[in-house]
């Protein structure tokens, strides 16, 4: 898919106030510093569409970006900040739960994982939670420019092994990306295009 336009639409702290348009949408989420803003900027072909993290954990908002005037890319707040208070953490949990349970336009989530780190408990728990809610999700490994080809393969294989422990019917499909090297963009956008086509056909 070619990106012809990408615009920031709105930030919300309430799911009920998110855009009413029936466009299919895709939620991007991950731990702080995972490279989410950089990935969104890479997808959108813009330097500063999503802000790269200045003050992690400060704002917990749902950000809608309209892409090609027919689908939404949704930037969800990051989780796993060391310095966030308990009440902030509770707010985050409430907002995310409301989003994933109420948002009808959501087609699937993309969970971002820094490829340099082995599977972390809160990432795995988050995926298990999505699975329980019945939310389809993919994994996006970020910063793959930091590893060599064989290290990438070993990390992804190990990650899949860790996920197998959960006994899901199928492990989530994953994408290997690097925002600095513009890697993985086409595969990711092709998948979104494929999913969009299914939605548009059924409308
Ligand atoms: P966010 O907090 O998840 O939005 O993460 P950012 O996009 O702000 O990135 C966090 C840090 O990782 C920044 O210093 C980025 O420059 C760096 N970063 C993000 N993506 C990549 C990548 O693909 N490769 C490398 N080497 N660094 C990256």
Note down, in words, how this protein is organized.
The chain is of the alpha/beta class and 203 residues long. It has a single domain (6-181), classed as P-loop containing nucleotide triphosphate hydrolases (Rossmann fold), CATH 3.40.50.300. It is 36% helix and 21% strand. The protein contains five helices and seven strands. It has a seven-stranded mixed sheet, sandwiched between helices. The model has no long low-confidence stretch (mean pLDDT 92). The structure holds guanosine-5'-diphosphate.
Helix content: 25-40%
User: What's the count of strands?
Assistant: 7
| Assembly state (oligomeric) | single chain
Tally the helices: 5
Query: Architecture, according to CATH?
Result: 3-Layer(aba) Sandwich
How would you summarize the topology of this molecule?
Blueprint: E1 6-12, E2 25-30, H1 36-44, E3 62-67, E4 71-75, H2 86-102, E5 106-114, H3 121-133, E6 137-142, H4 149-164, E7 174-176, H5 185-202
This protein binds guanosine-5'-diphosphate.
Quick recap:
The chain is of the alpha/beta class. 36% of the residues lie in helices and 21% in strands. The chain has one domain: 3-Layer(aba) Sandwich (Rossmann fold).
